[in-house]
Amino acid sequence: MDLDGTPANPNILRADLALIGFGHVGRRFLTLLEDRRDHLLREFQLECRIVGIATASHGAVASLEGIDTRLATARRIAGQQLGSEATSIDVIRCLGRSNAALRVMVEATTLCITDGQPAIAYAEAALDCGCHVISANKGPVSFAYRRLSDLARRSQRSFLFEGAVMDGVPIFNLVREAMPAVTVTGFRGILNTTTQHILSAVEQGESFAEALARMQAEGIAESDPSLDTEGWDAAAKAAALANVLMDADMTPHAVEREAVTPATADAARTALKKGHKLRLVASAEGRDGNVRARVRLTEIAADALLATLPCSANALILSTDLLGEVAICQMGGDLTQTAYALFSDLATIARRRAASMLS
Ligand SMILES: NC(=O)c1ccc[n+]([C@@H]2O[C@H](COP(=O)([O-])OP(=O)(O)OC[C@H]3O[C@@H](n4cnc5c(N)ncnc54)[C@H](OP(=O)(O)O)[C@@H]3O)[C@@H](O)[C@H]2O)c1
Fold first, then answer.
1. Residues 317-354: pLDDT tens digits?
2. Cα 23 to ligand 1 centre (Å)
3. Sequence-separated (6 or more) residues with CB below 8 Å from residue 349
4. Would you state the pLDDT for residue 215?
5. Distance from residue 111's CA to the centre of ligand 1 (Å)
6. pLDDT in tens, 230-282
7. Mean pLDDT, to the nearest integer, of 79-103?
8. How far is 18 from 263, CA to CA, in rounded Å?
9. What is the whole-number distance in angstroms between the Cα of residue 223 and the centre of ligand 1?
10. Pocket of ligand 1 (CB under 6 A)
């Protein structure tokens, strides 16, 4: 790149990115971006620069000349401040002033289950100043999908969130790109890895607390693990799926919900004696936007697909009008897959831009 960030080769597109939220997912995304830099150049003629990073308590940095991300990562690891007192909104506005061909806010802040904020406000601010939005956070899509997708359409920008449900497994891409004219009439699935792991572990005699502690140590559990155990994470995913795939306009609070508690261990072992598995199943059914969604502890016959999943797996079964039931499984999720979801959203934006230049 030249000093002003213009790629030396005029066929190369510059994408400036701001990372709002720089925890497990944000940092892994940055690593993946570095790792697949050559792929982005070769396949999408895309050269990415980070021009902003914002956190809740470690400060923020923004520079239209690009940020030395090695330094940002090192500072984060040392637990020091990233830099200025700038806010996330300052970083987003800085991104909005970039002259790059693509400006992308990469949002990976924690889910606020009360109202999805401030992530929704970040997405609105980014779209308002002409940036695309990609998010690993369930908040925006589960609380404000209709509003944000309308705003994105009006701004001719993308609002993408593949990582919000089943990490990098392409649920939304699958339906959008590969299932034209298909109506999704319902779904059921196991969407929360932490509770899936806990329920599998307590069947084997392990305690609820031990199984949860392992999920926290591996960075799989939410920062606030009650979001997993009380069913909120699954409810947010159910709302996201219902909003996007079934044209609902609901929030996680409209999803009927049950929790996995230490007492659930006994119920899981009792179910096992009957040849069943107790699992936290998220489901929805309905038509024309009139959708009922639930997250319920459900006893499943041991040979049913959802009961045969390993403890680290998630699965979603879509009920459709033209394709019958379509199942998609994720045999094991980790941070790389969530980071990949953001990466695939970035690739989608690059593809859409290339297609709009051709048409
Ligand atoms: N971890 C997973 O396996 C996984 C899988 C799928 C989806 N997700 C979703 O991805 C998102 C990020 O997860 P994570 O594991 O990376 O969480 P995390 O490690 O707790 O990191 C969250 C980051 O967001 C920052 N942050 C929180 N609130 C903020 C705010 N209001 N404004 C600006 N920055 C804020 C935090 O700042 P500080 O550093 O100052 O705390 C931190 O940098 C979550 O929404 C999560 O549900 C995670």
1. 999 999 999 999 999 878 899 999 999 999 999 999 98
2. 5
3. 102, 104, 132, 134, 158, 160
4. 86
5. 7
6. 999 999 999 999 999 999 999 999 999 999 999 999 999 999 999 999 999 99
7. 84
8. 43
9. 8
10. 20-26, 54-58, 88, 108-111, 118, 136-138, 163, 167, 219-220, 222-223, 335, 338
